[in-house]
Amino acid sequence: MTLQDERAGRRCHSVVNPIHSAIYFSKEINEHYAAAGVSDPLSAYLAARAAPMGAVGAGTVTATFYSFGHRVIAERVPQLWETITPQQALETRLEAVDALLRRLWGEDGVASEEVSEAAELALRASEACGREARPLYAGNADLPVPEAPHLALWHACTLLREHRGDGHLAVLAGAGLSGLDAQATHTASGRGMSTGWVLRTRGFTRKEWEQTLEGLTARGLLTADHELTEEGLGLRKEIERRTDELDRAPYEHLGATGVARLTELAGQLTLKAAESGAFPQDLIGK
């Protein structure tokens, strides 16, 4: 089935993705991984997100995460797997997600019919995702679907998020943008992670950030004030359009009615999560 609204999948993903990504900004991820022996927040993030691929090395993590500095990853991986095995990391991840969603949505919320329905729709959409050239998606796709509906929903949102993300990285590479280039142009759009958050979490120095901005300005993608030029705006729009094309299959499989309903349900759940403090107020912006 072809969706008549070409951006329907993107809109759906925009409210599905936060259900997955909320864990990375939570106290639960740090608490549960610290209890498992991983006290460094970045190491906890790396363990949670890379574990589906197994005990991979720093190069693989840098390649698949794309917008993180290799230096800070290599300081932690593969030594990380001596502290926590990938299987332990996956078990810890699910425990943290369970605690987080219960805090954000409440006991009645996680047991609601809406969460069960959203899980069914998201899982159905994920049936059309493909493993080829999508390592983060493929790793997660090999994991069992949790029985509890709220965890099944999180798992399905993870599949959809990583499927789109893997395709997005291919588009970024094709556009000639390094990980830091991509992060900087997204920040300049006002829709990406703020500069402060990039520097605190992605392992780049202020000097590296400024050098990237200078390089993007020389390429004609940013103005002297680090705003997107017309060329830069056009490139970002084309990147999103190409990403939509590569991520079309799950939403066409779900169909227009299913996509609309999943967007509605996931939108309500994401709003509830945001209202419960799931995301830092200064996360998005310049």
TrEMBL record:
InterPro entries, sorted: HTH_67
Pfam families in alphabetical order: HTH_67
Protein name: SalK
Native organism: Streptomyces tardus
